[in-house]
Structure formats: C-alpha cells, structure tokens
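Q: Structure tokens for this one, please.
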Amino acid sequence: MQLCFVRHGETDWNLQGRYQGRADPPLCAAGILTARGIAERLCTDAQLRLVSSPLQRATATAGVIAKAFGAAAALPDARLGEIDFGAWQGLTQAQVKLRWPGSLRRWKQDPAAFRFPGGESLAEAQARLYDFLSHPPWPAEHTGTVLAVSHAGMIRLAGLIAEQRPLAQFRQIEVPSGAIEAFEWSAGGALRRLQRG
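A: Here is the predicted structure, written as tokens:
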C-alpha cells in the first residue's frame, strides 16, 4: 500500500524562521497556496484516505486536499504531531543561540543524543512514528493510498526509518513546505521509499 507523507503549508512562523513544534500557528496566505499546489500535484485515487497531525497547520492543509478530491475529512492522529521543541517553540535560531548556545551546538552536532529543553528527543518522536506505522488508523484491508499530513521533523524520521539510517543523520534530510514523500507501507510497519517530491 502507498503511504504518502505530506508536509503542511507555510505559517508566518515558518517564514520568520521560528521553531514551531507543538505550537499551533495557522497557515498564512502562502501556506494556503502551498496546500492547493499539493492537491494539484497528487494523483487521483478513489480510495484515498487522509490522516493528519491535529495541529491546525496540518489539518488545514489536509482540508484543502480533501476538498480538492471530494475525500472524507482527515482523521486526526496525535502520533503525527511535530517533535516537541519545548522551550524553543516560538523562538528564532538567533534567539535560541543567545539563551542556549551550548544546547544549540549539541543539537547541530549530535541530534540523536539531544533532548529539547522541556520537550522531547528524536528517539521519543521516532517511537511515536513507529507506533503509527505499526498500529495504523486505517483498516488492514485498505489497498488505496493513505496521505498523512505531518511536519518536517516527523517526515525526516520516516525517511530515516525507510532507509535504515541512524538518528544521527536526521539533519541531512531536507523536507520543504509542501513536500510529498511517497513510501510503500506493509503490515507490521515496514517502509520503503518510492520517490521524493
């Protein structure tokens, strides 16, 4: 079965370079256009199922896609929520560097061993994703495409899982706004990358 992870459209925080994490800013005008562009790039699938992070930037993106395809509204799934950046949420990298210079260095040099202050580690976020893949919200007999609208951090983790790469390589994967990442999913939660979009 094909499972496509889609990164939500932009928010003002994206454009300002702020860490979003579990904060919940809405899509901006550019983000709505990105969501429409995603829908235009997707192939029609009569059996399309939508699941989404419950954060509004993801649910709004999923809503635009659902409307374009006449599909049912996306099922929210908290396991698709972005990595919890804790105290960094709402701050720019320059602000983080002023307050936590050592922590920012550790995050850039050794992401696998880092825990965001007041937030979570990559391993914890990946455990949520493994649970989503192993115990999905779609029925076992579903054979159509599943579209999971999520966030850059979670899509990077999906790429690492599919390519059997370590968490240390997290920062080597780029996931721009509106990216569509296609995988083959099989029961038990195995992923194999099909294409990068």
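A few notes: The two ends are 18 Å apart (CA to CA). The mean pLDDT is 94.
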